[in-house]
Each structure stands twice: as C-alpha cells, then as structure tokens.
Amino acid sequence: MSFVWPEALWLLLAVPALVGLYVLLLRRRSRAAMRYASVALMREALTGRAALRRHLPPLLFLLALVALIIAVARPRATVTLPSEQRTIVLAMDVSLSMRAGDVPPSRMAAARDAAKAFVQEQPPDVRIGIVAFAGSAVIAQQPTRDREELIAAIDGLQLQYHTAIGSAIIMSLATLFPGEGFEFETDALAAGAGGRDRARGASIDHPKSADNDRPKRAEKKESKPVPPGSFPSGAIILLTDGRRTTGPDPIESARLAADRGVKVYTVGFGTAEGGTTEVGGRSIFVRFDEETLQAIAALTGAEYFHARSAADLKRVYDTLNARYVLEKKPTEVSALATAIAAVLVLLAAALSIAWFNRTV
C-alpha cells in the first residue's frame, strides 16, 4: 500500500497522546468516585464485563479516528478489477512469409486458430477489430461484438507481398480513433521512410476491406500527449513473423500510439532460427525482428511475447485474455477507509447510548 499524501500520517502521533489523556481522565474519575462509592459498587465496576463496556466505545472511536487519518493520507492499493479495456484491435501479419511451414501446418493456419480462440473467449461486452497488414494495412473488420463476423474476417484473410508493421500500428490507431486523421500520419511517415516502397506494396484482398469500411479521412486532430499505456478503453495486439520491408518506421508509429496512451502488445511468431517459404518460385528465408517488437512494446507501456509454436501462440493469447478480463492496478481506497471510520463511530455511539444512555 502507498499513500498520495503520506505527510498526513504524522497525525497518527496524536493517537498515543489521546490514549494518555484518556488514562489520565480515568484515574481522576476513579479518585473522585472512591470518596463516595461503597465496596460493593467498586467490586462491580472492576469486573471484566463492566470494564469491557466502559472501554469499548472509546476504543472504537479511537480506531475510527485512525481510519479517518489514513483516509486523509489517500491510500492506494493494488487490487484486481474488471479491465476497462473494452476495444481490442488484432493486427495480423498476412505477408507471404506466414505460409512458412516451420510452425505446422503453417504459420498462417496456426495464427488463425489462435486468433479465433482469443475472439471466442472474450467477454460479451468487449469489442474486437481486425487489421490485416502486408504491403499496406487495412481494416478487415471494424470493432464489433459479433463473434461470427470476426471469425469470418479471420478466415477470409489473404496473403500478400511485403510487411508494413508501421502501417499496421497506424491503421489500428485509426480503428480505435475513427475520424481523427491517422491516415495522414501513414502518408507522412511513409514519405519520410521511403514512401516508394509503400507505393509498390499490394493491398490485401478481403471483402471487408473496401474503401467504405475505412475510417473517413479527416484532418489530423491535435491532441496533447498522455503517459504511455494510460488509455483505459482500448489496446492493440500486433502479431508478425517478419520484419519491416516497406511503409512507415514502426518505432515512429509506436510513438504515435504512446502519445495517445495506447498499449501495443507485440507477438513475434515463428522459431528462433526462422523458416523458409516459396515466393515466386524462389525459396526465401524469413525471421521476425525481435528487437523492434520489443522496442514497440516498451515505448507503449505494453509487453512483448515470443511464440515459437502454435501451442505457444495459444498460451500468449490466453495470457492476454486473462489480463483484459481481470487487471491489477493501483486504486485509491480512501473511500473504504472513510466508510470504516463512519461505521466505527456509529457503532461506538450506539453502544454508548445502549449501555450508558449517552454518547462517547
């Protein structure tokens, strides 16, 4: 437990002083009572039950004061709460390298199965969007709670040339923040990082990716940067088995996500040794860029995962699913401490009235 205003805890030093004052008053009352009380009355006053009745209400009042001082210090505790992240964007690599067979039956088949299992295990109120990327990135499915539409979108993904990881991040941001002009960021960053390569990248052929499914291009809205990972309503999960060959710089794209507080969880898929696949009649070696994926996750306050097999990928998605359903976070519990103080005060007053026909 931590405190927002720990200086207020100095007030606890008054508690021993109050205890000492209470003992002093009791002694004075005892001396005055002994002048007039009979021996029988003194014996009755010294019994255990009578002593408990005498001291319990003041003790409860003292504990209430301690709880109130703690509440003033604004305590924070790490508690497990239902996650507030209610929109998740799955950014899936559909470059030709995903048909490599080092993860049987193929990387793409394993990725599809794991993504569909993740979708089906999400709580009903979680909206999920699908972004597919190869030479460019498109929205394969707008965020929805309809699991059947999401499964159909995943099954309909088609493999294409090139890998534009930076474009995937920006299109995922456009999915989370529609109408805020993130497409302009794609154009600007691609121009600065070799836009000619991006122009050669083929789009992804999918029935859900028509132009009218894209967020409308609007002027880029200026927004004040927020702490990385602080956006509570959405997150991006990016899976890739390769490295950037075209499009914007992934690190620059990750900075855009960090400025909006959006976490980008990255998953490097494939064996550490890489794999080979046939492209245009040639055998091509492919291996993902682990260093860049780690940097993206670190910049955005998220985590990086390496999945070497279909089983590993399923475990990664299970881990992420558990974090979205239940999430540990520091939470201020001042209200709880105040409520405890109020209950103790009411209980002390009730006992005092019941036993002595007066308040504490």
Give your account of this protein's structure.
The strands form 3 sheets. This protein has a 6-stranded mixed β-sheet with strand order 5-4-3-6-7-10, sandwiched between helices. Strands 1-2-11 form a 3-stranded antiparallel β-sheet. The two termini are about 30 Å apart. The chain is built from 12 helices and 11 strands. The relative contact order is 0.16. It is of the alpha/beta class and about 350 residues long. Helix 4 runs parallel beside helix 11. The protein has 2 domains: about 100 residues, no CATH class; about 230 residues, 3-Layer(aba) Sandwich (Rossmann fold).
Fraction of residues in helix: 40-55%
The strands making up the biggest β-sheet line up spatially as: 5-4-3-6-7-10
Which structural class do the helices and strands define? Answer: alpha/beta
Strand content: 15-25%
Number of domains: 2
- Per CATH, the class of the largest domain reads Alpha Beta
Residue runs with pLDDT of under 50 for 5 or more positions: 194-218
Would you tell me which CATH topology of the largest domain applies?
Rossmann fold
CATH superfamily membership of the largest domain, which one? von Willebrand factor, type A domain
* Number of distinct beta strands: 11
